[in-house]
């Protein structure tokens, strides 16, 4: 995980929207400037970056892909940038008692967040072309699956012949599109030696099927470069304490990337039934008095830790 090696003097905070960027500049050596608004286009961003002398760090939020042009131009200009976790920034803003929300306030908060937390902020690295395409295909498949589930639920309700016919036609079309996207995902992985090797290593673990392996490759590109606790935390399966004084509450899993937590739950359920060391671990936990959901949570963490270790070994072999 790449991070800055020294405290930044000048940090830019970018509040991103579809058409515009609100920018706030935070400085250590002089008063900060007022926020300004520029177009969210490559040409406007390049002009803005040329108009300022120096930038040590730029910070922005993920905004449904509208930040991609900004990140590309920042990297092209050689500026270190960090794409933040929106929940962390919201907590940072609330810690100052700020209740109002505007683009200018958000841009200022992002800049000050970068100034304050720079030591722990991982720098954004551009994804490889194949992995970027994989992420887009996996996201599209997830959208189609959501539509499929919604249409299936509607088809079970009372409806007339016309509605039933429409639902059946819609389901047939959506299922066809899902199959087409899955074929594209398979073809893309087969064409890429790096993705293909990682995909096969991940599938060799009981409970991890083709869909889960492809989704992890798309949504967790950091896998194979992290420490085990970092991997569990990023995947949203790290247990968090809930203690106060003599009270010892239940540890709960929260934070991280929630879409991965759902997938790892499915993987853990499958692994608990498949022969192998993961099933033995699950049964041992149950015999020791652990609740089934607690044992499944332990399997979820074990799966992501094992996958991270396997991909780290694979990366070492390839390098």
Automatic annotation (TrEMBL):
Ranges where the Transposase IS110-like N-terminal domain occurs: 13-155
Pfam families the UniProt entry points to: DEDD_Tnp_IS110, Transposase_20
Any one GO BP annotation for this protein: DNA transposition
GO molecular function, one term: DNA binding
Superkingdom to which the source organism belongs: Bacteria
Keywords of the record: Coiled coil
Coiled-coil intervals, chain numbering: 171-198
Keyword Coiled coil: yes
Domain spans labelled Transposase IS116/IS110/IS902 C-terminal: 202-283
InterPro entries: Transp_IS110-like_N, Transpos_IS110, Transposase_20
Name by which UniProt lists this protein: IS110 family transposase
Organism per entry: Pleomorphomonas diazotrophica
Lineage, opening ranks: Bacteria, Pseudomonadati, Pseudomonadota, Alphaproteobacteria, Hyphomicrobiales
């Amino acid at each position: 995980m790449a991070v800055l090696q020294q405290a930044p003097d000048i940090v830019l905070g970018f509040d991103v929207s579809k058409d515009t960027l609100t920018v706030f500049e935070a400085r250590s050596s002089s008063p900060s400037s007022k926020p300004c608004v520029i177009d969210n286009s490559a040409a406007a961003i390049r002009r803005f970056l040329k108009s300022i002398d120096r930038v040590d760090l730029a910070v922005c939020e993920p905004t449904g892909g509208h930040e991609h042009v900004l990140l590309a131009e920042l990297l092209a200009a050689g500026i270190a940038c960090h794409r933040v976790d929106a929940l962390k920034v919201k907590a940072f803003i609330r810690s100052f008692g700020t209740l109002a929300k505007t683009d200018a306030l958000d841009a200022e908060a992002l800049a000050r967040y970068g100034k304050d937390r720079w030591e722990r902020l991982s720098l954004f690295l551009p994804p490889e072309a194949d992995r970027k395409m994989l992420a887009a295909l996996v996201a599209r498949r997830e959208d189609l699956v959501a539509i499929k589930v919604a249409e299936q639920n509607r088809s079970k309700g009372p409806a007339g012949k016309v509605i039933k016919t429409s639902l059946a036609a819609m389901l047939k079309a959506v299922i066809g599109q899902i199959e087409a996207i899955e074929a594209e995902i398979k073809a893309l992985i087969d064409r890429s030696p790096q993705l293909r090797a990682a995909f096969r290593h991940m599938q060799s673990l009981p409970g991890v099927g083709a869909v889960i392996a492809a989704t992890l490759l798309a949504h967790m590109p950091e896998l194979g470069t992290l420490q085990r606790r970092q991997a569990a935390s990023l995947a949203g399966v790290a247990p968090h304490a809930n203690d106060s004084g003599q009270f010892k509450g239940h540890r709960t899993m929260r934070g991280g990337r929630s879409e991965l937590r759902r997938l790892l739950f499915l993987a853990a359920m499958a692994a608990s039934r498949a022969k192998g060391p993961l099933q033995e671990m699950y049964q041992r936990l149950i015999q020791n008095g652990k609740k089934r959901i607690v044992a499944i949570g332990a399997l979820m963490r074990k799966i992501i830790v094992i996958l991270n270790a396997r991909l780290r070994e694979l990366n070492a072999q390839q390098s």
